[in-house]
Automatic annotation (TrEMBL):
Keywords: Membrane, Transmembrane, Transmembrane helix. It comes from Neolewinella xylanilytica. This is DUF2975 domain-containing protein. The lineage of its organism: Bacteria, Pseudomonadati, Bacteroidota, Saprospiria, Saprospirales. The chain crosses the membrane at residues 46-65, 86-103, 115-136.
């Protein structure tokens, strides 16, 4: 696969992953703030059924990122690779939590156990979104589309 194609697929996977996580987070937050069990159930069902989008985007992101990184020793590339490992671990936690929250909301109860799992999902979701944004920032810097100052951004 040509490098430009890899870059395009990588960029699309990054956008899809970030938007999916942000959407799941926003919908869950809205449902929790509303406090309506019906809305919570609907959101958890939507997330479960939309989960394949994230399950496809994340490995695509990893595979294309690894191919683009090659054997680079660039500190930015190495930081992106390290973050990607955390993103994948968090992603596994997020998928597990999404399944648990769906099951709990539909077949058991929306109670303190549900709330603790929901809080964990918020934490993992924010962490993953932050890591993806940091990787996107570094990717833009690597591509020359973002210039970084010596003291940070």
């Amino acid at each position: 696969m040509k490098r430009n194609t890899l870059l395009t697929v990588h960029l699309i996977a990054t956008i899809v992953a970030a938007l999916t996580i942000a959407t799941f987070f926003s919908l869950s937050l809205f449902a929790e703030l509303k406090g309506d069990d019906g809305i919570i159930r609907s959101v958890k069902a939507f997330i479960l059924y939309a989960m394949p989008i994230m399950i496809l985007a994340m490995p695509t992101l990893k595979i294309t990122g690894d191919k683009l990184a090659g054997k680079s020793k660039s500190p930015l590339v190495l930081a992106k690779v390290k973050r990607m490992k955390l993103i994948l671990v968090n992603g596994i936690c997020l998928v597990s939590l999404a399944i648990f929250l769906y099951y709990r909301s539909h077949y058991q109860s929306i109670d303190s156990v549900f709330l603790l799992a929901q809080i964990a999902e918020f934490i993992f979701g924010l962490a993953n979104l932050t890591l993806i944004v940091l990787n996107a920032r570094d990717g833009m810097q690597l591509s020359g589309k973002l210039q970084m100052k010596a003291n940070g951004i």
